[in-house]
Input
Amino acid sequence: MPVEFAWAGKVAFTMDHLPHVGQVDGIHYALGYCGHGVALSSWLGERMGDALAGRTPVPDLGGRLEAFPLYRGTPWFLPLVGAYYRARDWWG
Output
C-alpha cells in the first residue's frame, strides 16, 4: 500500500519549554510545542482560528518568546551537530 500522507517539520523547543502564541507585525503564530504537538496544536489551532476570525482575542499563554543568546541567522552549527551524531551512530 503506498503512503498517502506524510508529515515533516522541525521540532521547536522554546527557551522556557512552553508553547507561545501571538501576533507580530500582523503575523499570527503558534509554535514551540516542545514535544506536545498533537494535542496542544489541535487545541491552539482552534483558538487561533477563532482569533483570526475575530471571534476571540489571540490566546494569552503568558511568557515572552526570546531568541537563543548569541545566536542570530543561519544555523551554521547544524551540519557539525549532524556529523557528530552520524559518527556516534556509525561507532554504535
About this structure: The beta strands are 20-24, 27-31. Residues 41 and 69 are 26 Å apart (CA to CA). The chain has a mean pLDDT of 82.
